[in-house]
């Protein structure tokens, strides 16, 4: 059996995605194992979810550091102490320095609540409604120096109905996030998902500009 893939999860908030990973990946035969959860906020509920699941937690308060470079250097040290094969951002609301992103090149994933490259940044559900879009969704991508950029791995598409509000869209999108993030982590852990100079590939086939597309 191939070696198990150790994963460090970074988060700042509720940890709904972390919970989905715990539920999906914490069985004996899983190819991935979450070895630590690190938060920049001591009050993040995600830390409680991790502790309940018996996962090591660590808090690194960004306000205690003078600037991004110093914080990211400390963050790298904290992460690397766990020697993970993969680092995943799960609602980690920090802009990362180029040095941090380069350090984890090819083994750093993020999830974002929109069909990237549409709607980078915040308030994606409201912006989709304001634009009158018929479809919305979420994206898992490898992280590069561009905020919410980087080669796409998998996207889940949901339809926008007339009665949708930012809250109902958030609910629909979160439910899909909780399916596609564990899926992408499994692919990586099984050695099926890779990043090279041509972009992201699954089973040796280029994933193309939208990544693997799933319509629920
Ligand atoms: C998720 O919806 C994720 O897509 C978003 O933060 C939320 C965290 O929820 N991330 C971003 O907006 C990154 N640009 P969670 O704490 O319940 O997993």
From TrEMBL:
SUPFAM superfamilies in the cross-refs: Formyltransferase
Pathway membership, UniProt: Purine metabolism; IMP biosynthesis via de novo pathway; N(2)-formyl-N(1)-(5-phospho-D-ribosyl)glycinamide from N(1)-(5-phospho-D-ribosyl)glycinamide (10-formyl THF route): step 1/1
Residues annotated as binding (6R)-10-formyltetrahydrofolate: 68, 93-96, 110
Annotated positions for site Raises pKa of active site His: 148
Annotated ranges, domain Formyl transferase N-terminal: 7-185
Gene Ontology MF terms in the entry: phosphoribosylglycinamide formyltransferase activity
Keyword vocabulary terms for this entry: Purine biosynthesis, Transferase
Record field: catalytic activity: N(1)-(5-phospho-beta-D-ribosyl)glycinamide + (6R)-10-formyltetrahydrofolate = N(2)-formyl-N(1)-(5-phospho-beta-D-ribosyl)glycinamide + (6S)-5,6,7,8-tetrahydrofolate + H(+)
EC number: 2.1.2.2
Active-site residues (renumbered): 112 (proton donor)
Cleaved signal peptide residues: none
Cited NCBIfam families: PurN (TIGR00639)
Family statement drawn from the similarity comment of this UniProt entry: Belongs to the GART family.
Function comment: Catalyzes the transfer of a formyl group from 10-formyltetrahydrofolate to 5-phospho-ribosyl-glycinamide (GAR), producing 5-phospho-ribosyl-N-formylglycinamide (FGAR) and tetrahydrofolate.
Listed name of the protein: Phosphoribosylglycinamide formyltransferase
Native organism: Pseudomonas lutea
């Amino acid at each position: 059996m191939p070696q198990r893939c150790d994963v460090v999860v970074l988060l700042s908030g509720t940890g709904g995605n972390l919970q989905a990973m715990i539920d999906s990946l914490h069985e004996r035969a899983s190819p991935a194992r979450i070895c630590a959860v690190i938060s920049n906020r001591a009050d993040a509920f995600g830390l409680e979810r991790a502790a309940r699941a018996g996962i090591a937690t660590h808090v690194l308060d960004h306000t205690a550091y003078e600037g991004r470079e110093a914080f990211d250097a400390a963050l790298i040290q904290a992460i690397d102490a766990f020697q993970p094969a993969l680092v995943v951002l799960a609602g980690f609301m920090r802009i990362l320095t180029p040095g941090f992103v380069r350090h984890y090149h090819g083994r750093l994933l993020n999830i974002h609540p929109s069909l990237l490259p549409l709607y980078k940044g915040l308030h994606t559900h409201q912006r989709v409604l304001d634009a009158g879009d018929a479809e919305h969704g979420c994206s898992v991508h490898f992280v590069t120096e561009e905020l919410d950029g980087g080669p796409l791995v998998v996207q889940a598409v949901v339809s926008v109905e007339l009665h949708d509000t930012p809250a109902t869209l958030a609910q629909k999108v979160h439910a899909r996030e909780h399916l596609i993030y564990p899926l992408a982590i499994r692919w990586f852990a099984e050695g099926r998902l890779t990043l090279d100079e041509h972009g992201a590939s699954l089973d040796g086939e280029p994933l193309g500009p939208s990544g693997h597309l799933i319509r629920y």
